[in-house]
């Protein structure tokens, strides 16, 4: 089926497949680094201390969302469109204003996180052991934010390998490499120090890669309206916040109402289930700038063809791993240690939610890259609210299983809703089914 499809690809899809292949290879390395880090942390620290470590990283992720201020996809969208037309003054203007906003917001957020570590640990999570690692983690916030934004900028220039390295491999692989030196002596705090060092190294690498990719910017003055940048980034900040809720609310609520061991098991299952959408993530890396480019050129037929064909490809490629995780969920979770075996059903449920994500394709990016940020925001608000309600109700009643059900159902609702909106707004059905425009 796939070879037959590949023979019919137009030049847009050829570019997408070639870029996605490179991205997939790098994403595979990133996923391997993340999975190995998760397994190694779990085996060295045990379920309870692993839960503390992952809870720290989840809180740090919240801070990074605030620090990025919705600029991720805004920078990607405007840089991809401007660079494709050779408008480097716009690129420099977008870069300068985006980095200035992000640096200011992330620095303030890091300071507040450092100052409020004790209060969060004692009064919200009721885990005194969380305070020290959380203070250390605050030092990683600024470089983490700037590294992630440079990754999006590199994607916009179709420097996919460099982008995926900065976004996925850098921090994970470097943390894994440094971890064994610190963790055995200082346990959780050593692991967090390793993450801080990795974040700074990755940011500096991303900055170097960006400057190497954009030598023309040194001769440009830079010009881009701040109002236009904020008009896109503000609704996307809400989208990023709700995206976090979709993926990690279960971890935070388990941190409040469950044990540290519950957090460790759930987060290990979440990270494992995310491997199913690895192919989709790789396609997104090249699809997003391609969507922006085709939409700006007004080529809706090519846009529809690229979006739909990409979905068919990723659905077929992701199916074997989905089936494997459902059929052998308990043996997979046993890789983390005997304490994690009870997370087998959790993995199977989360894997189902992730496969629904794959079946709907790059629908979120399709909407965002075509100027429909507000539709994405509204759809995300519905799904995230559902996720919060389900987490509150189900975690108290069913613990780990409740968190998994809440997360999987919300992911399915989010992606099916976005698919419907893309069909109604753009006339593009991304899922591999036949549909007629109403």
Supply database-style keywords.
single chain; about 450 residues; 17 helices; about 0% strand; globular
Structure description:
This protein is mainly α. The protein starts with a helix and ends in a 12-residue tail after the last helix. The chain has helices spanning 2-6, 11-68, 71-84, 88-115, 117-124, 131-137, 141-156, 160-213, 226-257, 260-273, 278-297, 300-327, 329-334, 344-360, 363-368, 373-398, 400-426. It is built from 17 helices and no strands. The chain has one domain (2-426).
Write the layout of secondary structure elements.
Elements: H1 2-6, H2 11-68, H3 71-84, H4 88-115, H5 117-124, H6 131-137, H7 141-156, H8 160-213, H9 226-257, H10 260-273, H11 278-297, H12 300-327, H13 329-334, H14 344-360, H15 363-368, H16 373-398, H17 400-426
Helix pairs in contact: 2-4, 2-7, 2-8, 2-9, 2-10, 2-11, 2-12, 3-4, 3-7, 3-9, 3-11, 4-7, 5-6, 6-8, 7-8, 9-10, 9-16, 9-17, 10-14, 11-12, 12-14, 14-17, 16-17
- Count the domains: 1
Structural class: mainly alpha
Uncertain residue ranges:
1-9
Helix content: over 70%
Overall spatial form: globular
Major sheet: none
Q: Strand percentage, roughly?
A: under 5%
Give me the count of strands.
0
Describe the oligomeric state of these chains in a short phrase.
single chain
Gyration radius, in Å: 21 Å
Please write the string of helix (H) and strand (E) elements. Answer: HHHHHHHHHHHHHHHHH
Arithmetic mean of pLDDT: 84
């Amino acid at each position: 089926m796939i070879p037959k499809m590949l023979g019919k690809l137009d030049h847009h899809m050829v570019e997408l497949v070639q870029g996605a292949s490179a991205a997939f290879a790098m994403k595979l390395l990133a996923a391997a680094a993340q999975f190995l880090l998760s397994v190694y942390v779990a085996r060295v620290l045990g379920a309870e201390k692993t839960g503390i470590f992952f809870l720290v990283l989840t809180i740090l992720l919240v801070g990074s969302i605030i620090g990025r201020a919705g600029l991720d996809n805004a920078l990607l969208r405007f840089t991809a469109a401007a660079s494709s037309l050779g408008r480097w003054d716009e690129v420099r203007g977008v870069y300068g204003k985006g980095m200035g906003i992000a640096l200011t917001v992330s620095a303030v957020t890091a300071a507040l996180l450092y100052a409020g570590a004790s209060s969060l640990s004692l009064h919200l999570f009721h885990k005194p052991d969380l305070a020290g690692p959380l203070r250390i983690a605050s030092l990683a916030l600024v470089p983490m934010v700037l590294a992630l934004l440079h990754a999006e900028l590199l994607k916009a220039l179709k420097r996919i390998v460099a982008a995926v390295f900065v976004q996925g491999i850098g921090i994970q692989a470097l943390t894994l490499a440094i971890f064994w030196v610190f963790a055995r002596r200082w346990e959780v705090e050593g692991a967090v120090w390793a993450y801080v060092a990795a974040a700074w190294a990755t940011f500096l690498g991303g900055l170097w890669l960006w400057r190497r990719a954009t030598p023309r910017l040194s001769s440009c003055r830079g010009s881009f309206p701040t109002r236009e940048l904020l008009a896109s980034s503000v609704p996307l900040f809400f989208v990023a916040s709700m995206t976090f809720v979709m993926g990690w609310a279960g971890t935070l609520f388990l941190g409040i109402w469950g044990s540290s061991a519950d957090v460790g098991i759930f987060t290990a299952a979440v990270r494992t289930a995310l491997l199913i959408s690895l192919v989709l993530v790789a396609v997104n890396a090249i699809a997003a700038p391609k969507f922006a480019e085709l939409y700006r050129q007004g080529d809706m037929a090519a846009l529809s063809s690229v979006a739909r064909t990409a979905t068919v490809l990723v659905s077929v490629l992701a199916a074997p791993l989905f089936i494997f995780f459902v059929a052998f969920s308990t043996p997979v979770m046993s890789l983390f240690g005997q304490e994690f075996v009870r997370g087998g059903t959790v993995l199977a449920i989360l894997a189902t939610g992730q496969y629904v994500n794959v079946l709907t394709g790059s629908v979120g990016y399709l909407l965002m890259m075509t100027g429909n940020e507000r539709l994405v925001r509204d759809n995300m608000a519905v799904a995230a609210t559902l996720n919060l309600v389900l987490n509150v109700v189900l975690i108290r009643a069913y613990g780990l299983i409740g968190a998994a059900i809440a997360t999987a159902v919300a992911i399915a609702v989010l992606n099916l809703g976005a698919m419907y909106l893309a069909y109604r707004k753009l006339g593009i059905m991304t899922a591999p089914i036949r549909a007629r425009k109403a």
